[in-house]
Amino acid sequence: MADGLTELLVAPLAGVDTPSWRGALADAKAMLARLAVRRAGSGPFRVTDHEVRAALSGDATGDAGWTPFAWSARTARRPLGLAAVRLLVAGGARSPVEAVRARLAESAAWVRNGNPCASQLDRWVAGLSDAGRSAVSAEAVTWTTRLWCALDWAALGPAPAIGRDRWWDSPHSALLALRGRAEVRTERANLVVLSGPRRETVRAELALVTLVDSLRSRDGTLPGRVVGWWPDSGRLVRVEPEPAVLTLGAEAVAQVLAGSGLPVPSAA
Amino acid sequence: MVLVAPRPLPPAAPPGVTPPRRGGGREVLALLRGDSVARPRFDPGLAGGLRAWLEDAAYGFVAARGDAAPVFLGSRQVLGVTEGARVPDGVSDELVLARLVHALFRQLVCQGDLGDPLADALDALEALGEDDVVGHVAALPAAARAALSETVASHAGNLRDLVPRFAPGWMPRTDDRVAIPLAGGRVVLHGTFDLLVGLPQPGTASLCALGLSTSGPWARERRSLHFLALLETLRSGAPPFRLALLESATGRYGVEDVRDEHLRAIASHLAAWLAGDTGSRG
After folding, report:
1. How far is residue B146's CA from residue B112's CA, in Å, rounded to a whole number?
2. How far A99 CA lies from chain B's nearest CA (Å)?
3. Residue B70 and residue A74: Cβ atoms within 8 Å?
4. In angstroms, rounded to a whole number, what is the distance separating the alpha carbons of residues A232 and A197?
5. Phi-psi region of B80 (alpha: psi -120 to 50; beta: other; left: phi over 0)
6. Which residues of A touch B (CB under 8 A)?
7. CB contacts, 8 Å: A142 with chain B
């Protein structure tokens, strides 16, 4: 499992037909520009993989099904886990348990000292009892261990980026922003940790990562492949940077903004 | 080879006498560590063969069902394990106890010690967002709450003796979920390891799994661990090489090596269950 996943993150990319790529990128930009204009005035809209999944699978809930976000051991495990993996990669801890403990100690110190680095999450964790913090720690350790043990980190090259989500803000409207989420980024690939069942929307979710990287690129550099990985099953799905992926990503965004559950034409 | 199967129930202490504590899970830890050069070998093709067998059965199940919606099958469905299961109208007493004790188990693994058992368990469940269980306990009359507190304390005492305190290098992780899609995702076998330790190594059985039972019966809980071992085989290509079952109500434990026969037996049961064999579903 670990070998196959690491190999996908370091394997060279296949060549792409440059005119086709540029054409697809121009088309995607034009489509997003039209969406931004149409969207203006109706409030800010941030499109993430979650929105893509919800819109394309018809799971988008109306206001009645909406519940406000609240920190819990389960919602905190990813941000704490990413910080712990960062510490492990940097050599600041020798095991996931130590890394998570260090991160939680940092939280407590920041809150105690009034450090401006303290986030809402830090304050929530610091306000828990020892037993509550232990539950948070247990969830984060499991999340961290799965990611840490899944990869051969030495093979990934120098300084892989851990948990750096990337945003693209539409130049046509400050109201539209797209987020590309990836847990690990190397020179050639982006690893996205997936949860939930296998689903038909997953390629569109991952295409958003390719789209955001392509839109942000100033020199037209080809983005890396996107590898989706389900730790629950060990299954992988890969999305290579191809013109069709840009189209798929842009159409998925359009679908989200349209609020429709219809299938994306390019996904067929 | 079964190393301990299971440890016999300790004799009841005379009234007013506190039984001696064995402490810190050292016995379990020693059995899990075992002989590192004598790890069981598994046929590298075993995982593929088991998957093919189950895929066939799952496609048959889907065809007979005639419904494309995914079916999620855990040990509760295929083995009849009810521990921790929710009841239609919310939470049962059995579920409440299982969740509370499970929270204490995780705290012991993660932190190494416990304070007031019921208070700690409730704090942990609140942090996990399990508001239904926390609310259920909060609504109990004082006498029922006191009885629950006593029961939880009894389980906690046994856990203190049973649960090994793992060094961080063992990579202990609790509640490691496994979900194996079959038949194109229309059948999903799933389960959760209470505790996994060890570093995964491709092609090698290198993990130990520990299961916690709060209510038994022993034989069914053991089969549930075999079910999880099968899921791990399908996920990573190799099962855990050793399993431990800890029974918090009695302080019993058992440790055994995973063998091909265990995996074949549980896969056979699953295939029969998917085929609609009445005995298997009973």
Report:
1. 25
2. 10
3. no
4. 9
5. left
6. 1-3, 70, 72-74, 94-98, 128-139, 141-142, 145-146, 149-150, 197-199, 230, 232-235
7. 173-176
The pTM of this model reads 0.90
Which of the residues B51, B99, B111, B228 would you substitute to probe the A interface, choosing the one with the greatest number of A C-beta atoms within 10 Å?
Answer: B111
- Strand, coil or helix: B210: strand
- The C-alpha atoms of residue A84 and residue A103 are separated, in whole angstroms, by 6
Q: Where are the beta strands (DSSP E) in chain B?
A: 2-4, 71-73, 173-182, 187-197, 208-213, 242-247, 252-257
Q: Which residue of A has its CA nearest to B120?
A: A131
Q: Is B177 an 8 Å CB contact of chain A?
A: yes
| Paired sense of beta strands A225-230 and A189-193, if any | parallel
Give how far the C-alpha of residue A9 lies from the chain's centroid of Cα atoms, to the nearest Å: 15
Write out pLDDT tens, residues B153-192: 999 999 999 999 999 999 999 999 999 999 999 999 999 9
B18 φ/ψ angles, rounded to the nearest 5 degrees: -85, 125
pLDDT of B20 over the 50 cut:
yes
- Give the DSSP H or E segment for A30: helix A18-39
Residue partners of A259: CB distance under 8 A and separation at least 6: A55, A60
Q: From B224, B140, B146, B231, select the one nearest B188 (Cα to Cα).
A: B231
Q: What are the Cα distances from residue A193, in Å, to A78, A228, A241, B218? A: 10, 6, 18, 36
| Region for A247 from its dihedrals, namely left if φ exceeds 0, alpha if ψ lies in -120 to 50, beta otherwise | alpha
Q: Which residue of B has its CA nearest to A141?
A: B173
Q: Is the dihedral of CA A218, A224, A225, A230 positive or negative?
A: negative
CB atoms within 10 A of CB A12: 7
Question: How is residue A178 written in tokens?
Answer: 């797209």
ipTM of the complex: 0.88
- Burial class of residue A174 in the structure, from the number of CB atoms within 10 Å of its CB (0-12 exposed, 13-18 middle, 19+ buried): exposed
